[in-house]
């Protein structure tokens, strides 16, 4: 079964990914919200893009003033945001240490 799961993960397309995303706990959503607020302005466009590309109901929202309701976002959207935000913050921290 492990090999099969690994193979499926390697071949995962969006539909399989939808099923595999772990729902976020309240604390994880809170942390994600705090982390998004730490991002510099130029990184927020990608956050909006991720949300709008995965949440059809938010496609028509104004990208300049999008309101994110973490309770209504799909687990896959939240996990993708989490990955993106973590990668941004890790790069930011590395820059800070190199001074």
TrEMBL record:
InterPro entries cross-referenced by the UniProt entry: Bromo_chromatin_reader (IPR050935), NET_dom (IPR027353), NET_sf (IPR038336)
GO-annotated cellular components: chromatin; nucleus
Matches recorded under PROSITE patterns: NET
Source species, domain of life: Eukaryota
NET domain residues: 14-96
Pfam families, per the entry: BET (PF17035)
GO biological process, one term: chromatin remodeling
Region feature Disordered, mapped onto this chain: 1-29
PANTHER family: BROMODOMAIN-CONTAINING PROTEIN 3, FALZ-RELATED BROMODOMAIN-CONTAINING PROTEINS
Stated name of the protein: NET domain-containing protein
């Amino acid at each position: 079964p492990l090999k099969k799961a690994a193979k499926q993960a390697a071949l995962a397309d969006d539909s399989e990914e939808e099923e595999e995303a772990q729902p976020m706990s309240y604390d994880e959503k809170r942390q994600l919200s705090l982390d998004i607020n730490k991002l510099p302005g130029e990184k927020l466009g990608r956050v909006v893009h991720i949300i709008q590309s995965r949440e059809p109901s938010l496609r028509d929202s104004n990208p300049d003033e999008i309101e994110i309701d973490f309770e209504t976002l799909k687990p896959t959207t939240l996990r993708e945001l989490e990955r993106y935000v973590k990668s941004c913050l890790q790069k930011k921290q590395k820059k800070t240490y190199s001074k």
